[in-house]
TrEMBL record, chain A:
It is a multi-pass membrane protein. It is found in: Endoplasmic reticulum membrane. This is dolichyl-P-Glc:Man9GlcNAc2-PP-dolichol alpha-1,3-glucosyltransferase. Pathway: Protein modification; protein glycosylation. The chain crosses the membrane at residues 78-102, 114-133, 171-188, 200-218, 266-287, 294-313, 333-351. SUPFAM superfamilies: BolA-like. One of its GO terms (molecular function) is dolichyl pyrophosphate Man9GlcNAc2 alpha-1,3-glucosyltransferase activity. Keywords: Endoplasmic reticulum, Glycosyltransferase, Membrane, Transferase, Transmembrane, Transmembrane helix. InterPro entries: BolA, BolA-like_sf, Glyco_trans_ALG6/ALG8. Belongs to the ALG6/ALG8 glucosyltransferase family.
Length: 422, 516
């Protein structure tokens, strides 16, 4: 079925063929219902670079409209190589940076190899990245690099790297609160008012500059800006999706939350509960901002977000697992146990990816109700190109599509259906 | 330490289940079908498929056993008429069978490594890294689990036999070697080493000065040996001899119709010979020495006859004589240095080398006959470690053309590099601790010239992958990259062979031994 692989390929197609301002806007050329861009601009720039290379290799990889659903032997190899390049350039150097940073602060152990190895070898990351297909290693790489800098005391560089991470995937917000409180605590520990102001200004300027540079193409028009923000934080999608190990999904077994409370109120409840659960570790970190507390707070923070927040994917467990790698030496048993649990929790997703293109309507969300793969047969499709057929179906299902996260379809005429049955 | 490593590497092998499979996959499926569904007297006559049974009977019985299990996975694969049948369960079963039989290889490596450790003195530093180098041999994993063969299983039995010899349990060693011969007859090439060793060091004894005591020929030992060997052969060939099919079996086992070289020339002496012939033909054509009637026919695609244009054509008899001549010196050396099982292993390596260099229709996979026993010796003398490093790198590189699909390129490159780096690191730590690094950095244990040669593999690889199509030569000279690889690796293999021969013949007793 078309999934994240097709989404990434589609984003390359969109970013290469359309001007920047149109990337997040709904238009005839850019149908946002079909895997529209919903990650921040850095992902879009990365897709643009990959798309340029793809076009060089074989223009049909990213031809506007015509390349939908394109999957070939060479294309798969190309896409997997792009993930590998990100690994080589961003993730592995970041993990190594972390190894060096951790080895140089007290308690000085010669080489923190366990953390490095667990970062590199954590199966969940490369299964999702190479198999299900995403670029988590980019944002997580920036994140690990940011933590490494913060541990070494390079606060500005650390903030810049974390901003890059945040601008790659908005899910890095999971890690934002601990880092914020850590930096705030560091600033307060400066000892003098001047030192405090100086540090806060330095960090503030670097963050604002980073955001400014990345968002610059979108800042000229408020409509464009709001559209981008709307794409990044879709509230229509529902409390949770599939079977994810969050608090709300687990409680829903007993109390049907989706039926009792509507989406907006539920979002508010999630926000409040997340904030409440974050308070203890944030205050602790603020009072005593040491590298060790930072790493533990990151794990705590991401756990709270995973369990309590709105619309959590199973893949978000990666955002908890990577900080867990950073405290491997201190808590080897718990971290190992957690690794195994996290991989098992992603099992349904991974099993699903082994499926071939299904026939007929299949509710692959097993009841949580958000992913569909559909075969539509109708005589109205005769003589119409692929894009028009998709638009017909989309037009009919407009209301329903608002709540569906993943929707892929094959549109056939009755004659084509007969041929396929043979 | 042993079992986690074995299980870990087996898990990595499981990842290769969906990878590219060569025709050898269909070959083995066909043999499963033949042995399962046909009566024994038809096994060597069956030819519905072009991949007829051409291994000795014990291997056929091995396939028969596997077929019993295969039935539970997918009975349809056991139908002889189901040519090229490759359902998911079939693939799963075949791949799993290789992974499971590799445990024999693991056991063989383990006991051999322990023997190496015993002779070296520093056990832990030697045994575990060497075990990883041998069991995690990248080339073997690629060939067995992608291309699809049962080499691991067979080399496991070979290691078992060698280990028993090292432990001075000669009868068991003879038993395992007979089993091995009856599983795959390519091991006939190393039989001379066994023969000479047993004759000189087992059946005869020596005076304290090292001369032969001819009167001490032990008939009892000879008979014990003979009975073991004959029993194994009897159990294996017996059913076929009784039905009078021996001729047919031998005919299947030794098909000499195939050409001098495989479609991709294994990097041996004949590859260099073919190349020289081509060069002379080209030069001769330009200079007008030759008439067009002397053109050589290329082996395109599958095996065909190959006639040389300028140099004399080679027949199977010539290759046999050449092979025998090449191994005589090492056998004489083995005769002269008796009662030393490590000398036997050296002779094994040289017999493998000789057969690789001069054999008829040699596959590039036969390089393992050289690399694996050499792995046992690489901890003994520094020169052996040097030759092992060269052979490891060149030998595994020469296997690359077997996996030509683009999805397998990152796998083969990564596995090769990982193994090469690990091997050189292990051997560097063992042999060169505390040395000052030379001025120009080089590959550990290699001289400058050797390092330059090995680095030269990178441009060859890049040319084959990218350069050839970039220069647009794909239609004019489609075999150029393969020929380039054959010839380049052939030079390296030849060099390693001569270097090692020189060492064994002249320096064994004076060689640089590891001081403890």
């Amino acid at each position: 079925m078309f999934g994240d692989y097709e989404a990434q390929r589609h984003w390359q197609e969109v970013t290469v063929n359309l001007p920047v301002k149109e990337w997040y806007m709904n238009s005839t050329n850019n149908d946002l219902l079909y895997w529209g861009l919903d990650y921040p601009p850095l992902t879009a720039y990365h897709s643009y670079l990959c798309g340029l290379v793809a076009r060089k290799l074989n223009p049909s990889f990213v031809e506007l409209h015509k390349s939908r659903g394109y999957e070939s032997y060479e294309h798969k190899l190309f896409m997997r190589y792009t993930v590998f390049v990100v690994d080589l350039l961003i993730y592995i150097p970041a993990a190594y940076m972390f190894l060096c940073a951790l080895s140089s602060i007290p308690p000085r152990r010669k080489y923190r190899k366990l953390e490095y190895l667990s970062l590199i070898l954590y199966p969940g990351l490369y299964l999702i990245d190479y198999g299900h297909f995403q670029y988590n290693n980019a944002s997580l790489g920036f994140f690990v690099g940011a933590v490494a800098c913060l541990i070494k005391g390079r606060d500005c560089l650390g903030s810049v790297l974390f901003c890059l991470a945040l601008n790659y995937k908005q899910m890095e917000l999971y890690h934002a609160l601990p880092i914020f409180f850590y930096l705030l605590g560091i600033c307060f520990k400066q000892g003098s008012i001047m030192g405090f102001i100086f540090k806060i200004t330095k960090i503030g300027i670097s963050v604002l500059l980073t955001f400014g540079i990345i968002w610059s193409p979108f800042l000229s028009d408020t409509k464009v800006l709001l559209q981008v923000v709307h794409r990044l934080f879709p509230l229509d999608r529902g409390l949770f999706e599939d079977k994810v190990a969050s608090f709300w999904c687990s409680i829903s077994v007993l109390v049907k939350l989706k039926k009792l409370i509507d989406n907006n109120n539920m979002a508010l409840i999630c926000l409040l509960s997340t904030v409440v659960c974050m308070i203890p570790s944030s205050i602790h970190l603020f009072i005593n901002p040491t590298p060790r507390h930072l790493r533990y707070a990151l794990v705590n923070g991401s756990f709270v977000f995973f369990l309590m927040s709105y619309h959590v994917h199973e893949k978000s467990i990666l955002l908890v697992a990577i900080p867990a790698c950073l405290i491997f030496s201190e808590e080897p048993f718990m971290v190992t146990w957690f690794f195994i649990v996290s991989i098992v929790s992603m099992l349904p997703l991974l099993v699903k990816d082994g499926l071939t293109v299904p026939m007929g309507v299949e509710d692959q969300s097993d009841g949580c109700g958000a992913k569909f793969s559909v075969v539509v047969v109708s005589p109205k499709f005769t003589g119409k190109p692929l894009l028009q057929r998709h638009r017909l179906v989309n037009g009919v299902l407009q209301e329903e599509l608002k709540t569906i996260h993943a929707f892929s379809m094959k549109t056939l005429t009755p004659e084509q259906w007969e041929e396929q049955q043979k | 330490m042993f079992w986690p490593v074995v299980l870990g590497i087996s898990c990595v092998k499981l990842l290769l289940i969906p990878a590219y499979r060569s025709t050898d996959f269909e070959v083995h499926r066909n043999w499963l079908a033949i042995t399962h569904s046909l009566p024994v007297d038809q096994w060597y006559f069956e030819k519905t498929s072009q991949w007829t049974l051409d291994y000795p009977p014990l291997f056929a019985w091995f396939e028969w056993l596997l077929a019993k299990v295969a039935w539970y996975f997918d009975p349809k694969m056991l139908d002889v008429r189901n040519l090229n049948y490759a359902s998911d369960m079939t693939v799963l079963f075949q791949r799993l069978s290789v992974v499971v039989t590799d445990f024999v290889f693991a056991y063989g490596c383990k006991i051999c490594c322990e023997q190496v450790g015993r002779s070296c003195g520093r056990r832990e530093d030697v045994v575990y890294p060497l075990f990883l180098v041998l069991f995690g041999n990248a080339g073997l994993i690629l060939v067995d689990h992608i291309h699809f063969q049962y080499n691991g299983f067979l080399y496991g039995i070979m290691f078992l036999s060698v280990a028993r010899l090292l432990q001075r349990r000669e009868i068991e060693a003879a038993f395992w070697f007979s089993v091995l011969l009856n599983l795959k007859h390519i091991y006939l090439y190393i039989a001379p080493a066994y023969f000479i060793y047993y004759l000189r060091s087992y059946c005869l004894s020596s005076t304290p000065e090292g001369h032969i005591r001819w009167q001490s020929f032990s008939l009892f030992r000879f008979v014990k040996l003979g009975v073991t060997v004959v029993t194994v052969f009897g159990l294996s060939f017996g059913p076929f001899i009784m039905k009078g099919q021996l001729n047919q079996v031998l005919f299947r086992l030794f098909p000499f119709k195939r050409g001098l070289s495989h479609a991709y020339w294994a990097p041996n002496f004949w590859a260099l010979y073919n190349f020289a012939d081509k060069v002379l033909e080209f030069v001769g054509g330009r200079m007008g020495w030759l008439t067009t009637s002397g053109r050589a026919a290329m082996t395109g695609g599958l095996v065909q006859e190959f006639d040389h244009a300028v140099l004399p054509s080679i027949s199977p008899q010539i290759t046999l004589i050449a092979t025998l001549i090449s191994i005589v010196p090492c056998l004489v050396n083995l005769w002269r240095t008796p009662h030393n099982p490590w000398q036997f292993v050296r002779a094994l390596v040289l017999c493998g080398f000789g057969s690789y260099m001069f054999g008829w229709h040699v596959h590039e996979k036969a390089i393992f006959l050289v690399i694996l026993p050499l792995g046992l010796l690489c901890m003994q003398r520094k020169v052996e470690a040097q030759v092992f490093v060269i052979m490891s790198i060149v030998g595994h590189f020469s296997l690359f053309p077997l996996f030509y699909t683009s999805h397998e390129t990152p796998i083969k490159v990564f596995a090769f590099l990982l193994h090469a780096v690990y091997t050189t690191t292990v051997l560097y730590n063992h042999w060169m601790e505390g040395r000052i690094s030379p001025l120009i950095p080089r590959i550990p244990l290699c001289s400058l010239a050797e390092t330059v040669y090995l680095i030269g593999l990178i441009p060859v690889f890049l040319y084959e992958q990218l350069g050839h199509s970039m220069f647009g030569l794909e239609e004019k000279m489609p075999f150029l990259p393969l020929m380039l690889i054959s010839v380049y690796c052939g030079l390296g293999v030849m060099y390693a062979w001569l270097k090692y021969y020189n060492f064994v013949l002249l320096n064994t007793r004076k060689g640089k031994k590891k001081n403890h």
